[in-house]
């Protein structure tokens, strides 16, 4: 069972919203996911991506492969989370 971390669309026509999900690679785009990891709203300027990084790391450790788009989003979200996290001395 090959797993992918990918987007599934939940928005209406001309108003896209997406969920970040873990799903089997051969299942259809809007099929039943294994787990929902977060959301993506491309229409907002502030904080477009909301992810549960601990669950993303869990699934990456289990062998799930992110799509190219999600790989870039995860990297960007990690950088933003590190920048806003308080520095420990």
Number of β-strand runs: 5
Query: How far is it from the N-terminal to the C-terminal residue, by CA?
Result: 44 Å
Low-confidence stretches: none
β-sheet strand percentage: 25-35%
Shape: flat
Fold-level CATH name:
S16 Ribosomal Protein, Chain: A
The helix/strand class is alpha+beta
Description:
By secondary structure, the protein is of the alpha+beta class. The chain has one domain: Ribosomal protein S16 (S16 Ribosomal Protein, Chain: A, 2-Layer Sandwich), CATH 3.30.1320.10. It is about 30% helix and about 30% strand. It is built from two helices and five strands. It has helices at about 55-60, 70-85, and strands at about 5-10, 20-25, 35-40, 50, 65. A hairpin with an 8-residue loop joins strand 3 and strand 4 (about 50). The longest helix has 17 residues, at about 70-85. About 15% of the residues are buried. The model has no long low-confidence stretch (mean pLDDT about 90).
What would you say about this model in short?
By secondary structure, this protein is α+β, with helices and mostly antiparallel strands.
């Amino acid at each position: 069972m090959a797993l992918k971390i990918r987007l599934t669309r939940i928005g209406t026509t001309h108003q896209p919203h997406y969920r970040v999900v873990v799903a089997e690679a051969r299942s259809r785009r809007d099929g039943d996911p294994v787990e929902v990891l977060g959301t993506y709203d491309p229409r907002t300027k502030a904080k477009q991506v909301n992810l549960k990084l601990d669950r993303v790391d869990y699934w990456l450790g289990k062998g799930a492969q992110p799509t190219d788009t999600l790989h870039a989003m995860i990297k960007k979200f990690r950088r933003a989370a590190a920048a806003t996290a308080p520095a420990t001395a």
